[in-house]
Amino acid sequence: MAIASLLVQSKKKREDLIESGYNRWANDDQGLPDWFESDEARHYQKQIPISKEMVAEYRAQLRAINARPIKKVAEAKARKKQKAMRQLAKAKKRAEGITDTEDMSEREKMQHIKQIYKKAGVLGKKKPEVKYVVAKRGLAGKKAVRPAGVKGRYRQVDPRMKKDNRTMKMKAKAGSKQRGGKKKSR
Q: Where is the composition biased (Basic and acidic residues) (predicted)?
């Protein structure tokens, strides 16, 4: 990137960069051993005419670009947020309509409002995070003791479980696709 900026900045810098390509370090000897060629390629080079500060500056720019969220991801998050806001506004409107009615008791009103907000996803319960602990080979089938350093809910799994679950899903998916018709003979 730093070299590319030198090419674009001015004609003189571009010509200087091209000129610096022809030097005493640029040679193409043939018939040399591989170890010698690799050693020469590593150590026998001319210094590039860019400063460390310039390289650091461009690296910082690239880090800033990479740290930014991808446009599509940002748009998807914004759409999700907008949808949640619309649902919340709709739920508020319906809740206000329920509070204005007089033919229900206060308790019924509260239950209805709670139900509306639950449907809107405001009162949705968050699933407790489950930590997965992979069992050692000898202990896979036995009752496990809580491993050291694991707090909260955990689930002990054996190393095969992931592969077994994947094959079961694939079989179920393949089974649902079979409609009929001719079977291929092998």
A: 155-167
**How do 154-157 and 131-134 pair as beta strands?**
parallel
CB atoms within 10 A of CB 134: 12
- Together in a domain, 22 and 38: yes
Q: Can you name the residues that pair with 25 across neighbouring β-strands?
A: none
Model pLDDT for residues 80-125, shown as the tens digit of each residue: 999 989 999 999 999 898 888 888 888 988 998 888 888 887 776 6
Contact, 98 vs 116, CB < 8 A? yes
How many domains does the chain fold into?
A: 2
Count other Cβ atoms within 10 Å, centred on residue 158: 14
> CB atoms < 10 A from the CB of 185, how many?
4
Q: By the 8 A CB rule, do 112 and 98 touch?
A: yes
Report the first-to-last Cα separation within the chain, whole angstroms. 56
Q: How confident is the model at residue 141 (pLDDT cuts 50, 70, 90)?
A: low
Put simply, whether the predicted model's pTM sits higher than 0.70 gets the answer: no
Do 44 and 25 touch, CB atoms closer than 8 A? Answer: yes
Q: How many CA atoms lie within 13 A of 176 on its CB side?
A: 5
* Cβ contact 110:134 at 8 Å: no
Residue 122: CB atoms within 10 A of its CB come to: 14
